Amino acid sequence: MSVLRLNGVDPAVLLECGNALYEAWKAYSDPEAEVLAFSEVDGEVQPHNTVTPIVRRAEDGSFEMDLVLRNNRTNEQYPEGIFHPHREMHHIKKENIGLIEVMGLAILPGRLKEELDSIASILAGDQALLEALKNDPNHPLAQHAAWVQELVERFGTALQHEEAVKIVQNEVGIKFTHILEHAGVYKRTPEGQAAFRRFVKSFGAI
């Protein structure tokens, strides 16, 4: 995610600075980075920029404020949101990324518990389940079919069940990391970081 962290001993000053950054972000546009603060929809101006704020006490007793930059624009390629989990991740999660997830704890749909157990069973040798998935486009695991094939190619189908469960859990964690990257306004690329610096510079912080 794209985060600005503020630190200070006076909470009033910290709040004032955080609010100033929030107001600056609400009106900030950078078309090169796909960031537009506003668009017109049916003759009405629609705002797109906001922040997810997180405030805590630092270990030294000062205060920290994290401002996670958010933008809810859509386009033809990403109709659910440019900075939203992209469709290739929807078999794991297609819902919005919220505060708890911004902080690193994945909230995943309840359906995954049984589905991931079944995928682990395939990696542990359930050939009947694998064949059923391959041959039935309406199989309960159909949305995971491409991912299951990838896992089978990488890990095989002869794992101990406990090992298979751990691998599936780890792979879901990797998927969630990519989901957070999708939701980040500024990507972890030279171009993305340069665009991030442009915003910070526009605020006068560098």
Task: Walk me through what this model shows.
- With 206 residues, the protein is an alpha+beta fold.
- It folds into two domains: 3-83 and 185-203, no CATH class; 86-183, no CATH class.
- Helix 3 crosses helix 6 (161-183).
- The chain has helices at 11-26, 99-102, 112-123, 127-135, 145-155, 161-183, 190-203; strands spanning 3-8, 38-41, 44-47, 49-57, 63-71.
Features:
three-stranded antiparallel beta sheet, 2 domains, elongated, two-stranded antiparallel ribbon, 206 residues, single chain
Low-pLDDT stretches are none
For the record, give the distance between the C-alpha atoms at the N and C termini, rounded to a whole number: 20 Å
N-to-C series of helices and strands = EHEEEEHHHHHH
- Mean of the pLDDT scores? 93
Number of helices: 7
Shape: elongated
Oligomer type: single chain
Output the strand order for the largest sheet.
1-5-4
Counting helices, strands and paired strands, the structural category is: alpha+beta
